[in-house]
Structures are given as C-alpha cells and as structure tokens.
Amino acid sequence: MGPxxxxxxxxxxxxxxxxxxxxxxxxxxxxxxxxDIESFDAYRGAEIARILxxxxxxxxxxxxxxxxxxxCNDGAISPKYLQRGALSVVGVDVDEEAIGRAQANRRDDGLxxxxxxxxxxxxxxxxxxxxxSYDVFEHVSEPKAILSELRRILAPSGQILIGxxxxxxxxxxxxxxxxxxxxxxxxxxxxxxxxxxxxxYHSPWYVPNMHxxxxxxxxxxxxxxxxxxxxxxxxxxxxxDFEATFESVGFDCQTHCVPFGSKYARWTGFLLRAxxxxxxxxxxxxxxxxxPKADKGxxxxxxxxxxxxxxx
Length: 312
Hints:
globular, Rossmann fold, alpha/beta, 2 domains, about 35% helix, seven-stranded mixed β-sheet, about 15% strand
C-alpha cells in the first residue's frame, strides 16, 4: 500500500471513516443502484422524472421535436423522450461499448444511437430541435469544440438543456464511494485525496461496488494510483467557466442554480444569487441555451462573431 501516511492523509482518512457511516454522499438508492449494471440502468432511467420536470420548468419542448440525448451512455434515458412525444431521438456518446449496448438493447421506432468524438458530433447541420444533456458536461474534455458542434446541429429555433455541477460542488471529483467527505478537494491536494482513496479501497470495512470489478467479475487489484484527477475525465469547470464558454460560442444562456435537496440545506437557496457563493452551494445547475435571434457565425477558432445583417 505504499509509504506511511502523512498527517494530512491521516486526517482525511479519519474523516472518510466518519462520513462513510452516513448518507451524506450516497443515498441508499444510489448505493443499491451501484450493485450491478441492471440496477444502475433502472436508477438512471428513473431520473427522467427530474429531467422532464426541468424541461417543463424552463420551457424546453420535447413533444413533436427531434431530440438529441447528448452523453446517453447505454441509452437508459433516451426512450423516455419518445414516450414524452418526441418525433425522433438520437443518443450520442463517446463510449463505444455503451453505444453498442444501446444499439443492441433498445430498438424503438424513431430511436437511434451514434458514437461521437470528444470534439465532434456526426449529425447533419440544423437536424436537431432539442438537445438534453444530463450529468455529462462536467466530463466533456473539449467543451468549446463540442458546444460549437451542438450549435451547428441545432435548428434555428432549437434549445439546449444542460444539467451539470460546478467544480466547487462538495462531491465534484465523483469519488463518492471512497471519498464521502464534502468539499475535500477544496481543502486537500488531489494527490492527498487519491492516496487516501487508494487506502480506503484496500480497507477491510470498504464495501465494493460494480465499478470495482472487471468484465469477468473479478475485484480490481488496485485503483486511484494517479496523483491528479485527469481533465480528460472531469474538466473542473466552474459555473462561470461554463457561462463564458457558452457565450464565446454564440449561445444565449440562462443559468438556474438549484439548492441541495437535504432538509438541512434547503435554506441556502437564497444565497445562490451571489456569484461566488453559488459555486459552492448549488446542489445542481441547469443551463438553458438558445441561438440568439440575430444569429452569429463562428470564426475559425469557434468563437462567435456578428453576422453582416447583425451589424446593419
């Protein structure tokens, strides 16, 4: 397991032991969902209620629209848009294996799945009316390039709904199972965090989940061996970073910060009006994007530029 733990590592390890007994990071439902892929698919599919509630609240149309499920994984959510009345649904994801499972297991009429790239979406210009991306954009390694692509394929009257987190969310590093300490990445280095995660993974009291096993069902011998959380996995964007990128690509953006769901934290909702505070206290963030009425083109760098008509 490596050298003796440093003082900071010992402190964080003790905090993990303390929080591990609670439901601060993982609800019982989430713990159950992580037992196997079938349970996770069921859990993920049930999240459609949260997404459709946001669509209704922020006037994002689904019925009669050509819908793109951006970051669909193996398509657990995608068919739900058809049930809501979508004209057609395309699911895209960079994970080739996940797209393969989606194509094999979900064959509804009007539903298709396509593998995308980290900087490209293989769809025709203006071929999509509504784009929904849920729990994905914090993982997009090339946000500007992808947003330029989404702008390209979006119809002039189309809209995008993005649900994601700020990097200052208490559990932004996505290490819930082994690091249930809120805001740990704000107080400890990534190297310290990952060293402690590795120690936790090998502790006798740690309960493994489906991500801890290989395709043959064998427990992975080791994990969390890096010194940093890769930006290929998490882009570490703040809310303000997302907003600046949306603007640079030429989208009009509305930001909706949602308070934590816990009864102990709901009172923090009024604090989300403060730009600095919202980065830490937003339980979730919904972005609504649309092309401006006086649409702009993009230059060679993917930045928005005013069109000739807009200058007149």
